[in-house]
Each structure stands twice: as structure tokens, then as C-alpha cells.
Design brief:
heterodimer; A: 111 residues; mainly beta; six-stranded mixed β-sheet; five-stranded antiparallel β-sheet; 11 strands; 0% helix; B: 115 residues
């Protein structure tokens, strides 16, 4: 069965302290790797899609990268408003079918 | 540009009852997926609707059923509710078809509590 594993489960950073979140996926024929941000009581907010190894996407302080087995979400000089749960999901099956999610990384950025 | 809207936002039911949750997709989207998210877990795929048909289904029992209407909106029905059905139910919309997987955009969910 497809499996997505995220680490660490929780991460506490000081404002300005850069770090990375990891997402490992175990499915062949990846059709897309997705990163989402989820705030408490809200639905996941789409951040990035990565399709092939070597691909990188950036948005403000966030940068997502993809290898054949893992994806990383790099957070540069984070601010308290970056605090959220970050979810990774892979897309399996045909075009636009189900997303298989990891459990997420709870990021807390202290001022 | 309206995003994905879900109703109601909160719902309390008792065991054995039935519930219907509703979803309107983002403007321009034609595909709706439903997910169940338990506390502290990632969302789990229930099923996806495209062109008013169920296109794929996750590991959920037949008590979970759905429907998509001609205007692309969708309903999720759950029968014979169990305590374990308590969760946040998320609807996601996207563009179907095509050769690349388009991102799914989520609503803020319906929080269902079973007493």
C-alpha cells in the first residue's frame, strides 16, 4: 500500500532559524508530490506541486525540492506566522486521482 | 473568486443516525474529492467524483456514499453513524482530465461529532 512518512512529527524553531521538513514516499510511478499548509480549524492550503526528481519550487520563505524517494520543504528565516502543520501528499493512480497524505509536521516558530 | 465552500461547518449526531454534508467546488473546477481527517492525522481519501460518477474509492465501507450534481457540487452521505466517524470531513476540488495532475484545493471542512 502507498505510504507517505513525514519527519519530524513536530519542530520548534526560533524566528530566523532555518530548517527543513522531510517527506518520504514509497510509490512507484509518482504522478505528483504535493505540499500543503494547514492552520488549526482550517482545511489544507495548497503550496506546491513537484512532478519529477530535481524539480524545485519557491514561495516566499519556503522552497520545496524532490528526489526519487524524498521531498524536502526548506524554511528560510521563518517568522511566527509560518507556524502551522505542513502536510505532504503523493498522487497515485491515473490523472487527478486520490492523494495519499502523511501525518504532517507541526511547526512552531517562536518570536 | 470563491474557493471551495462546505456546509454545515459543525454537526452533532448520535450513533445510528444518518448525515449529509455538502460541497461547492471552486469556480471552474469539475472534480470533487472527499477526505476524512481524524485528529492528529493526515486526510484519508474517501472517494472522488467526476462527470457525476464515482471515479475512485478509498478504503471506506458502503455506509459512505456520495453524489455529484450537474453544477459540479457534491454531497457526502454517511449512514448508521458510529462513534469512530467523528472527524473533520474535507472536500477538495480540482480540474479533471488532462495529462498532469492538477492540485486539489480544499474547503475548511465540516466537523462531525458523534455522541
Amino acid at each position: 500500500e502507498d505510504q507517505v512518512t513525514q519527519s519530524p512529527e513536530a519542530l520548534r524553531l526560533q524566528e530566523g532559524e532555518s530548517s527543513s521538513l522531510n517527506c518520504s514516499y514509497t510509490v512507484s510511478g509518482l504522478r505528483g508530490l504535493f505540499w500543503y499548509r494547514q492552520d488549526p480549524g482550517k482545511g489544507p492550503e495548497f503550496l506546491f506541486t513537484l512532478y519529477s526528481a530535481g524539480e524545485e519550487k519557491e514561495k516566499e520563505r519556503l522552497k520545496a525540492t524532490l528526489t526519487k524517494k524524498e521531498s524536502f520543504l526548506h524554511i528560510t528565516a521563518p517568522k511566527p506566522e509560518d507556524s502551522a502543520t505542513y502536510l505532504c501528499a503523493e498522487n497515485s493512480g491515473g490523472s487527478n486521482y486520490k492523494l495519499t497524505f502523511g501525518k504532517g509536521t507541526l511547526l512552531t516558530v517562536n518570536p | 473568486d470563491a474557493g471551495v465552500t462546505q456546509s454545515p461547518t459543525h454537526l452533532i449526531k448520535t450513533r445510528g443516525q444518518q448525515v449529509t454534508l455538502r460541497c461547492s467546488p471552486k469556480s471552474g473546477h469539475d472534480t470533487v474529492s472527499w477526505y476524512q481527517q481524524a485528529l492528529g492525522q493526515g486526510p484519508q481519501f474517501i472517494f472522488q467524483y467526476y462527470e457525476e460518477e464515482e471515479r475512485q474509492r478509498g478504503n471506506f465501507p458502503d455506509r459512505f456514499s456520495g453524489h455529484q450534481f450537474p453544477n459540479y457540487s457534491s454531497e457526502l452521505n454517511v449512514n448508521a453513524l458510529l462513534l469512530g466517524d467523528s472527524a473533520l470531513y474535507l472536500c477538495a476540488s480540482s480540474l479533471g482530465g488532462g495529462t498532469r495532475n492538477q492540485p486539489q484545493h480544499f474547503g475548511d471542512g465540516t466537523r462531525l461529532s458523534i455522541l
